[in-house]
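We examine the record.
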Amino acid sequence: MSPEKQHEQALFEAALDLTDPDERRAFLDRFCGKDTALRIRLEKLLSSQESAEAFLSLRPQREPESTPPDGQVGEADDGALSETNMHIGRYKLVQRLGEGGCGVVYLAEQQEPVQREVALKIIRMGIGTQAIIARFMMEQQAMAWMDHPNIARVLDAGATATGRPYFVMERVRGTKITDYCNEHRLNVNRRLDLFVQVCNAIQHAHQKGVIHRDIKPSNILIALHDGFPVPKVIDFGISKSIKETLPANTEAPARVRFIGTPDYMSPEQAEPDDRNVDTRSDIYGLGVLLYELLTGRTPFPSKQAAQSTPEELCRAIRERPPATPPSVYVASLAPDELARLAEQRGVKPRALVTALHGDLDWIVLRTLKKERQHRYETANGLARDVRRYRDHEPVAAHPPSRFYHLRKLVRRNRQLFIVGTLFVAILVAGLVVSTRLYYQEREAHREQARLRAEAEQSRAVELSLRQHAEAREKLAQAAVLINHGDVATADALIAEIPLDLIPPSLEAAGVLRTLGWWHFQASRWDLAAKRFAGMAKAITQVDSADTDDVSRQLLMAGAALCEAGDRNAYEQFRQMAIARFALSANPVAAEHTIKASLLMPSDAKTLRMLAPLASVAAATLEGTDPKTDSNPYMSAWRSFALALFEYRQGRDEQALVWVQHCEDYPNYNAARFASSRLIFAMASHHLHREDDVRAGLKQARELIDAWFRTPLNGGNEQQGIWFDWINARILLREATTLIDKVSPVPPPAN
């Protein structure tokens, strides 16, 4: 058949489907256009079809002069012959129910062997080409294969005396599924229950090897059985066998490339060659049906279908954009339209949007995938996912997510989780109450402990105040006793005062200095050290300006503590002294603090703390000449302090420079000269100048031994003050240990 004939045949069959005269005229106007010859041929064919049907008593146009005795032909009210009371075999036609491109469906009464109402479908008169008869027979066979409660059953089949095939189906009294759901205001879940039954019916058809290809609400009727709605799938008129074969030497119908209803067709049905259409095309149709059940409209309404050519309509179907999710579409409706839609589903508008959002969106969108490999593989798979949604289980269409599965688990076991949550809430509440009581009790204990601590602190403060008062009183008494020459009694009173209770005052320092000197003269070094340590505490804590007299007393305390051999007490003393005078800008205080703090080797931290004082002392000596110095006594001692500081840092060359500077001053002080000789000897030892080492050590030892062979006295600026000689002897013991490699010389016995 030529393409022109195929196109003409397709237009004829499409026009024949339109029973309304106005619709048929509009169709011919649109597709014939200015082709008058084509219009005339189509109108003749349509007229011939009606005449042929009338001639064979299927659609009589005119009543015969006399009614046949068997009453096969009746007349309608308008004078036209009707089809009622006609017989085909044992079936009497009652009325026409509908018609399609290939056949007409009648309501009929079966006369024997039982009486019942049935639906009889017979092929149209005049279109009995071999291909169309084959397709009609294929539908007949497909319906006969299926035996499912949700598919209309085939009861009988045959052919008229003129050879027109027909088959008889059960009469389904029902309403199309969308109208039924809206009329009865079925909610989303009840609509899904009906939809699952439709999926089961389509799955049965697929198992029988049949693809429906025209799933739409008008082909799914809801019938009541014992008061319960039951969907019935009808009209397999354009169905296709999965392994479809037509009789040999037959041509496919010209309209094979456009089979179905545009709003419900899958993209592959709109392809020029539909031989690749498989069961997933019905999955797409089910998705459109589900979309309409949920939202009240199809996802791709063909608003311009009437003005489009078949080719344009096919291209539009193939190029459809992705469907809008049902919840998004519903949420975008105007408030009154959304309210009407929600009322048809028996819910509030917000509840409808919430119900569609999520899993139902995912399920619907998966069925409407343009690429069929991304749809559900089977109708059973779709139905199973819908049931999972109904049972609050994770659906296969949703992307995998641990939180999603957890949420579904909670929703599925809501009562268990509610009970568990209540139980946990009770436990938490009990825990909160018990914790609160515990904290209240703990706070009460803390408050009691705080009150006890405050009471104890008050008692301690009171005791401390009393003890400090007693210490001040004893110091005052000791000062009076010393003035009267009773030093022993005064010392006995001071011995009762702990070191930490000695008040910071110059008066207390004076009493303790006197007692320390008294013990020193009697060679009671441990007791002298204790008194001088008390004196150091008094002067380092006193809130007075840095004076020569205050810092000078550090030398007494340091000498006494080192001579007593109490290293820990000396360490505490020099840290206290450094903390007191480290920021002083007084060069005398700087000199005294350095000498008192470095009688024994120290760590790097102590040296870093003394560095600012060394800078203060060195600044007073810059650019001075020992021969013209106005105060050579103080400058010489300051040079010695810097020599000691450099030696303790390990800078022996610099130490020797300051030793030389010290010894260049004209005023002679035996104790200072002996001390500088010891620094000279130890620094030279480190520099491997052994001749200088021995000479320096010998000179120092001779001076120190000579002074200590005479009775102890206070000394003077030329000979040296007593604590200067003590400091020299301390350095001598260190030098002897270093140079002669002998054990340290212990301090003199008490």
